[in-house]
């Protein structure tokens, strides 16, 4: 079942299929997230939060390019698969937006909570991929996607900062 063709001499080659599957999953998730971030930015009332969503949209485009490079490094195309987890997280974000759209003092806090759930999913996914790449000796993939992992963590920290300093304090635009 494991696809280790051509990888017999690679350390921990048994992880190859799992690495590729996780990369396909997060590629799909990142592409889905592009649409979700536009909706989050449009729904946000706080200008700092809106800007953070817009900046993360641009970062996400870079994340996709890094994933394409990682796939290329493995000799594969950068095709993703539908990520059911991201689909669920984005559906939840949409529900939150609808539920609190008439309460701007709560809406931004709710959007941050939804966005942080997305970030934590991405952090977990990239963390696994980086670990697999490291164990398999894929240094370039480890470094490329390790950079993305760091950015996802920074985004999560930024969202916490916006929540604690602005959104959860009832300040709106």
Automatic annotation (TrEMBL):
Q: Which SUPFAM superfamilies match?
A: Ferritin-like
The name on file for this protein is Ferritin-like domain-containing protein
Species of origin reads Sphingobacterium haloxyli
